[in-house]
Here is the input.
Amino acid sequence: MDTHRLRNLDRPDILRAKLEREGVQRTTLSFYRYVRLKEVETLRHELYQEWVALGVLGRVYISQEGINAQVSLPTANLAAFRAHLDRREAFADVPWKIAVEDDGKSFLKLAIKVKKKIVADGLADDAFDVTDVGEHLDAATFNRKMEEGALVVDMRNNYECLIGHFEGAYLPKADTFRGAIEEVKEVMKAKKDAEVLLYCTGGIRCEKASAYLKHEGFTNVSQLHGGIIDYARQLKAEGLKSKYLGQNFVFDERLAERITDDVVSTCMQCGTKSDRITNCHEATCNMLLVQCEACATKYADCCSPSCREIHQLPIDQQRTWRKGRSTRSTKTKAINDPEGLRRRIREEVELLALNGTLHPELTSIIHREQTSA
Ligand SMILES: [Zn+2]
Ligand SMILES: [Zn+2]
Here is the structure.
């Protein structure tokens, strides 16, 4: 088998255009399972071939400990995809979570990656029993226990909690799973016998988090079955009232799906109420931020005047400027300190007024382009 062909190396803009032209209805869904898998590399190539044939796009991690998949596929192929999964013993009857808000453009290509773990959790799994998980609760039970006064803990990272979360939940400040779980352990250490309800996006992180907290002596740990994604589905199906407020952060092109109309966050640039989540459009920055429409216009979809200055240059000059610069992600930088971002913006505005530029090195780039033109 020529495994080099089993990847898609097209550029994002080409992939996006292809998806626009496709014109079929797509469904976005996710699933995971902790299950012993053998010959993972071979399995990866087989899955890739089968799924490409069904028009599946998405991000999939497989490892010896299981599978974690977020995909979109033509709605017409859902039954065939189900059959493909069920045919393999390891994936038979794996529960799906179907996204409630879906424009069909959640993923641009299919990427199946072989990993050491299906969630990069940073935990030493051999130090505790990963199968001793908390009780799984459906949406109605989760709501009832919240009303009875259980402690609710968000097991996602800081940037995910930002634009939506359960009412009154503890929201970790950490930006990694490992950091969040250590933080929760520390903050709740005096409440080890309290009823604790965990939740995350699709349920997978709570599997590890609940087992870990039980290992650490917490006696009454439960978790939201299927995560926020399935909670939203159950709300609709059963007409329940949502105790989750705002949007659910998702790891695809959509960035978020709306659960309720509540706006729980503010624009990081001006402080007005907003839950419009986006990335800075200056490619080397790409910082994740909450940005209201007015600020998006004002800063040309960028996080700051200095990124805006680059973003508004002709594309050739942007490329010259980027040469040799790292594209290190700054995406979580302003999350815990939006005031820091606002301070930086104020300083940049002053400098810009003074010097006419925030990037003096641009003079030579622009000059070079002009003389060579
Ligand atoms: Zn704003
Ligand atoms: Zn930026």
Q: What stands out?
A: The first strand starts at residue 26 and ends at 34. DSSP finds 13 helices and 14 strands in the chain. The chain has a mean pLDDT of 90. Residues 3-114 form a domain with the Alpha-Beta Plaits fold (CATH 3.30.70.100).
